[in-house]
Task: inverse folding
């Protein structure tokens, strides 16, 4: 079972790193980029667990450690079992 | 006072803190490795500055799950005094023992400099012996000191008089120019509603001896020790009465 958790700052939270990256785009000559928001992606692989076992674990680690719910939000993607 | 300084992998102000509490403030100090599950006999827990777990993931995010933190949370919930300095403040916010979060400095620079903070309230052990409006000169050294709290939390902090220090000019004005990291409302330090858990980004332990050129930090730490001594004396009297 594989999963991907994407963590990003909430839209209401200022992202100075994303803003600096957008500015670097301008320095590269790419003007017209309205906004860049930086986030994190976690690729997670389980030892033999199925979707039912994995889902609550992913929810728990996303909420409690991978994201700080005060400033961040997360999306969990479960990859299809092969 | 029995002071415990928690040492996480990556703490680097632990020995400065130990030195000042032991040799300057003459307190009984013990270091506590983060894998300990009990605090032992203890009047004050300090989470020191540094880069616990290399600041991986988010500052303080992993230290917050170190084994010792269960005991720290229990101690805090029982009314014990817990003080977080810089990375320690970040750990306390991640642990939910203090509200809000500390984000990357808005300027994106690691800021290592002296700043001024204005004392906002004397209703905390750390500020009890100071004066409201008093300005202290203290060092900061951090990349993630940008304090964030949503609107409700910020109003809650203000209404409950939980903001201890705000970044100010030397003459006590709260200006954007005096804010080194983009913190909301120029917040440099806060306490919880029960006023027994507090954290700040500046390093009072680095400003406690003439030799380092600045002693304003010692005023905070002396206030803290005196407040704890008074409380202890008071509770001992209650027990013997």
Result:
């Amino acid at each position: 079972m594989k999963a991907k958790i994407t963590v990003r700052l909430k839209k209401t939270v200022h992202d100075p790193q994303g803003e600096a990256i957008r500015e670097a785009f301008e320095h590269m000559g790419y003007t017209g980029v309205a906004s860049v928001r930086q986030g994190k992606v976690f690729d997670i692989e389980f030892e033999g667990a199925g979707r039912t076992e994995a889902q609550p674990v992913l929810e728990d680690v996303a909420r409690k450690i991978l994201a700080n719910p005060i400033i961040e939000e997360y999306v969990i993607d479960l990859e299809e079992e092969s | 006072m029995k002071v415990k300084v928690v040492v996480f992998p990556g703490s680097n102000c632990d020995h400065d803190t130990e030195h000042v509490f032991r040799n300057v403030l003459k307190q009984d100090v013990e270091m506590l490795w983060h894998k300990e599950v009990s605090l032992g006999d203890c009047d004050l827990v300090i989470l020191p500055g540094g880069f616990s777990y290399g600041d991986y993931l988010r500052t303080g995010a992993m230290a917050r799950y170190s084994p010792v933190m269960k005991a720290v949370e229990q101690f805090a919930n029982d009314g014990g005094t817990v003080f977080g300095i810089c990375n320690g403040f970040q750990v306390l916010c991640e642990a939910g023992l203090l509200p809000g979060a500390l984000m990357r400095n808005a300027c994106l620079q690691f800021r290592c400099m002296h700043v001024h903070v204005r004392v906002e309230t004397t209703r905390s052990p750390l500020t009890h012996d100071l004066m409201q409006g008093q300005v202290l000169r203290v060092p900061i050294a951090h990349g993630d000191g940008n304090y964030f709290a949503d609107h409700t939390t910020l109003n809650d902090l203000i209404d409950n008089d939980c903001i201890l220090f705000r970044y100010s000019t030397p003459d006590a004005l709260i200006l954007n120019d005096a804010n080194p990291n983009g913190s909301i409302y120029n917040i440099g330090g806060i306490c919880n509603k029960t006023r027994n858990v507090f954290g700040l980004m500046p390093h009072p332990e680095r400003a406690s001896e003439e030799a380092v050129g600045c002693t304003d930090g010692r005023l905070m730490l002396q206030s803290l020790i005196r407040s704890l001594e008074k409380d202890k004396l008071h509770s001992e009297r209650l027990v013997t009465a």
Remarks:
- Chain B touches chain A through 20 residues (CB under 8 Å).
- The longest helix of chain B spans residues 216-240.
- The CA atoms of residues 39 and 72 of chain B lie 7 Å apart.
